[in-house]
Design goal:
- The chain folds into two domains: 131 residues, no CATH class; 65 residues, no CATH class.
- By secondary structure, it is mainly α.
- Helix content is 68%, strand content 0%.
- Helix 3 packs across helix 5 and helix 10 packs antiparallel against helix 11.
- The protein has eleven helices and no strands.
């Protein structure tokens, strides 16, 4: 019993110390992937561990050379970056005639293409993809901190932030998210704000959730259904 009592007392400090020790490794992986994403210098090969799905680099063609994208990472970001360079090409962006280097039809709304066209796509590919990931992480962590404040569980924020960093930059799946330049944190943001909206019965939070879901159409139908289901439930009360 004394051993169990002792473990209960030290488990949180032990957890925090363990993940603090791991933070330099997270930073190391973040720097390596960021360099590779911006410059395509293959520094990602030194990651520990390696991304779950390996490396998918932008192939060489006239268009990728023009925007200094050849051999860069963020293959999923390419799906929105290249079609957004020419908004007039959006009529073909959802077919195999798209400007995407792998001819993948776009999975993003025309409005999202327009937003990227006037923002991230003003930069060369490497920096644009890195900026895309940076903004995504900034929005996620700001929302995350706000959620802990609203839920009044700030005392648990620090260890959870350490755990999130570990999941993003020290696991094969997390590293694959960054390596592919995916939009997954927008989906996480959508679910986070949806949860806050339902817990606090706040329609504004649910609206923010829908905005983040709109970035990834795959999550928007789910948010749409939950919104109306909960709306009907609130009316009953």
């Amino acid at each position: 019993m004394k051993l169990i009592s002792f473990f209960k007392k030290v488990r949180k400090p032990l957890f925090i110390i363990t993940f603090i020790v791991l933070q330099p490794l997270s930073l190391y992986n973040f720097i390596l992937l960021s360099k590779d994403m911006i410059y395509g210098d293959s520094s990602g090969l030194y990651l520990k561990p390696l991304p779950r799905y390996g490396f998918m680099r932008v192939p060489e063609n006239t268009f990728t050379l023009k925007y200094e994208a050849f051999h860069r990472l963020a293959a999923d970001f390419a799906q929105i970056y290249f079609p957004s360079q020419k908004l007039s090409s959006l009529t073909t962006a959802y077919t195999k005639d798209t400007l995407d280097p792998w001819q993948r039809p776009s999975r993003y709304a025309p409005f999202i293409h327009a937003v990227y066209s006037f923002s991230f796509c003003k930069f060369e590919y490497g920096f644009a993809s890195f900026l895309h990931m940076l903004v995504q992480m900034l929005l996620f962590f700001v929302s995350f901190i706000y959620a802990f404040k609203i839920l009044r569980i700030e005392k648990d924020l620090f260890p959870v932030i350490l755990l999130v960093n570990f999941c993003l930059f020290l696991t094969p799946v997390g590293l694959s998210w960054f390596e592919r330049g995916q939009f997954s944190l927008y989906v996480s943001l959508s679910y986070l704000w949806l949860f806050l909206g339902l817990v606090n019965r706040n329609g504004y939070y649910i609206f923010i959730s829908a905005l983040f879901a709109y970035v990834k159409w795959t999550s928007f139908p789910f948010i749409f259904l939950v919104f109306f289901a909960m709306g009907a439930k609130f009316k009953e009360h």
